[in-house]
Amino acid sequence: MNLLKQLYLILALMMVFPYQGLAEVGRIELHTFQSETLTDAEFLTGKKDASPVTIAGELRFPRIKMQRFPVVILVHGSGGVSGYVDDWAHELNAMGVAVFILDSFTGRGLYKVNNDQSKLGRLTMIVDAYRALDLLAQHKHIDAARIALMGFSRGGQVTLYASLKRFQQLHGSISGHEFAAYIPFYPSCITRYKDDENIASRPVRIFHGSADNYNPVAPCRIYVEQLRKNGKDVVLLEYANAHHVFDYKKLTKPVILAKAQTTRACELQETMDGTIVNTQSGKPFIYSDPCVEHGPIVAFNQDAYDKAKQTLHDFISTIFLTVNKTQVD
Question: What is the model's pTM?
């Protein structure tokens, strides 16, 4: 790895992740690792040896002593690593769970993609999540059997579809590890992928708002119903009157993202050759399609946030915190 590039990534991380007020944190580590940048078509057709990229993340251990920690990988949305991702890192650390804040943008020279989603394929960040799983599974203070994936918006879509067995077979963990759970927040569910009802036999908990006009919840309801009919452990937690990013406490007033692209009016489907088509036109989907709109709303919702936090706490406690805590070597 180029030393200058590595130093650049670490300095970028130090600017992104604040170090003040981390009362719950006992140790912070910065890690760079290799991933790939693929188009959606390359991802869906299983292309190997795509464009290599060095990305990074911040690993925060809670201020407790344990031989091996459970960890939640946090996957940011189209705006990059934002304040609400840091907020959830604090919450999880306070529960005694380590967090790995994944940065899929800085190493690719990206700041945000809200206004131009074509800058990065929607599926390539799934590869980042799988490579982060490999990285953490080898860490001497991480329990490889207790690594969960949690993402927001675009990162929520990454989290949801990282559960597909087909995607795991194409790009999944090189070391053979699996995520213990999948926790998507307000993902987009408008795209139907081949064999997308065949997901991992691990719990999936989706957190969404009924008033979300960035990634509407209705397609997720349909998808979840189909998964549950197939016997999958999937639950959709839907919060009344909650908009997109309902968990960002600093959004005290609703904000209209005038230039942000939203595919809320689109219906997309994967064809046999790995092309994502707009079902309305039957042609390959592009972000200049008429169904792509602008101006979604983001807003904090105290009631939704409080309920989501309690539900997440109970869920994490159930899947992670049933083992005895022991002294770190």
Answer: 0.91
